[in-house]
Structures are given as C-alpha cells and as structure tokens.
Amino acid sequence: MANISSAELTGRLRDDAAAADLGAEVGDYVALLKPRVMSLVVFTGFVGLYLAPGHINPFLALVAVLCIAVGAGASGAINMWYDRDIDAVMQRTCDRPLPAGRMAPGEALGFGCTLAGASVMVMGLAVNWTAAALLAGTIAFYVFIYTIWLKRRTPQNIVIGGAAGAFPPMIGWAAVTGDVALPSLILFALIFFWTPPHFWALSLYRTGDYAKAGVPMMPVVAGKRETKKQMLIYTVVLWPVALAPAYLGMTGLVYGGVALVLSLMFTLAAVRVWFDDGETAARRMFGFSLLYLFLLFAVMVIDRAPGVTALVGGLFGGGA
C-alpha cells in the first residue's frame, strides 16, 4: 500500500456526510465488533463460567456469555471510532468501515455506546451486578485506558492495556459465583502475561505500519532486538502461570501435561524469533500464540469434564 498523504487522509476523515448517505451494510457493523477478537474473548469468558463452583441456570449462562460478546464488540466499535485516523494509514486496518468511508464516525460511536450500555444493563438485571460491574470496567478500561490513554503514548500500551482482554474469565466466574476468587485471578493472569508476546510478535512484522501511524509499539521505540528479548522473558514467566490451575487443584493431570508441553513450545517459538532476522518466525509465533491460549482454555474444559479424571487415574494408576 502506498503512503497516504495528509491531504488524502484529511479528505477521507472529513467525508462523513458522504459515508452516511451511502449507508453502512450489515457486514460493516459486524466488522466493527472485531469478530475474530471477540471469539477468543467469548470462549475464555465461557471457560471462566464453566470452571466456577456452584450452579447457574443454562439460560442465564447463555445470557452472560452473550453479554460478554456484546460488551467486547462494543469495545471494538468504539476503538475503531477513536482510531479511524491511524487505521487509515495502516495496511492491516485501512479497509475497516470508517477509514474506507463506508460508515460515518457518529454511526460507529453510537453503535458501540448502545451495545456497551445494553450489555452491562442486561448482565446486571439478568445475572448479577458483580459480573455487570466487571463488564463495565472491562469496556471502560479498553476504551479509556488502552485506546485513548496508552496506545499512542507508550510502548507499554500492550502490557498494561492487555488487562482489558484478561477480564472475561473473571466476568464468567462472577456470573456464577457473584464474586472474584483466586482461580479467576489465575485465569486473568494467564491472558495478561500471554498478551505482550502475542501482540509483539504481530508488531515485529508490522513495524512499518505502526511507525507510519505513529503508534509507539515496542519494536518502533526500543527496536526489534529488545522486543524479542521481552517476548522470550514473557514466555518464560508464563510457565508458572500456565501451570497454576493444575497445582492449585482447578484442573488435573490432563491440563497440567498439556500446559507444560504448550508452554515449552511457546518458549521455543520465542527462541526461534530471537535467532530469525526475517519475519517468518514472528509470523509463526503470532499464529501459534492464538492456538496456545485457545488450547489451554479448551483443555481446562476437557479436564473438568465428567469421567476424565477417573479415566486418567485408571490409565496411570494401573487399576491398583
């Protein structure tokens, strides 16, 4: 993609009336929700709900997961509204509805705010207000702390801002229990420490994009070597966090074994990035990081499924 001049960028962003006249399509509203990001958020929220002790009506569980999804989508829509100027100059984001001129900024902001308010109110009225407060805090953190305050000011944007993506398991847990407990904090920490190496892997092969948009991602400010070092450190820090559910009794041997193997593979991916002067290893690590988190949470569910613990015990205990 060729560099976009200031005049062209200004023209794009001032063409709100034309965008409103054209009318956004359903697909544009779906794109505002960042569905790929939302899917992982929803899944981790569901796992928090599944692991929580106690009982919740299946319909209310579905409502809680839906509220988490809508709240995540609302955050994405407001983020796209605020970031439409830098999205226009980045190859990865220039075809989003706002920079591409298919939607007026006011539409996106109104859509996001409406979804945010509705998701919090429904969560509070239908489930409980602890979960609703956590959902409201998550949306506010993503919009005000990460998007508006951190993203354009510090290379630690992802480190601190990553907390927003780490709240969903706590929300799911609170939907069942009405409180926040140590196990839910462990799930929070797992996503929190996973986020920096995940996004820094992406930023390593998108450095030019971020530099052009003026976003101070770690490779832009500190250089690729320092970024690679930080990525490796975070994958090592993840080891005890990823294994914590097993040694705290939240899960059993199945999860513990899988977490050990996956964490080793994640660290090896970071080592490959360290020795690779190109982009291949970073691209592969970014892809694997998504699989890493998904598999960890998926195996937590499998490990807690009825009969799995007894089956594993029988296999390794030899029926003694």
Written description of the protein model:
The protein is mainly α and 320 residues long. It folds into two domains: 6-180, Orthogonal Bundle (Tetracycline Repressor, domain 2); 189-306, no CATH class. 78% of the residues lie in helices and 0% in strands. The chain has 18 helices and no strands. Helix 15 (224-247) packs antiparallel against helix 16 (253-275).
The structural domain count equals 2
pLDDT < 50 runs, ≥5 residues: 1-5, 7-13, 15-21
The H-and-E topology, N to C, reads as HHHHHHHHHHHHHHHHHH
Mind summarizing the main beta sheet? none
Task: Compute the CA-based radius of gyration.
Answer: 21 Å
Average pLDDT over all residues: 90
Tally of contiguous helical segments: 18
| N/C terminus separation | 66 Å
Can you count the beta strands? 0
CATH class of the largest domain: Mainly Alpha
Shape: flat
Any idea of the CATH topology of the largest domain?
Tetracycline Repressor, domain 2
CATH superfamily of the largest domain: UbiA prenyltransferase
- Name the beta content range: under 5%
Percent of residues in helices comes to: over 70%
Structural class: mainly alpha
Please state the second-level CATH architecture of the largest domain. Orthogonal Bundle
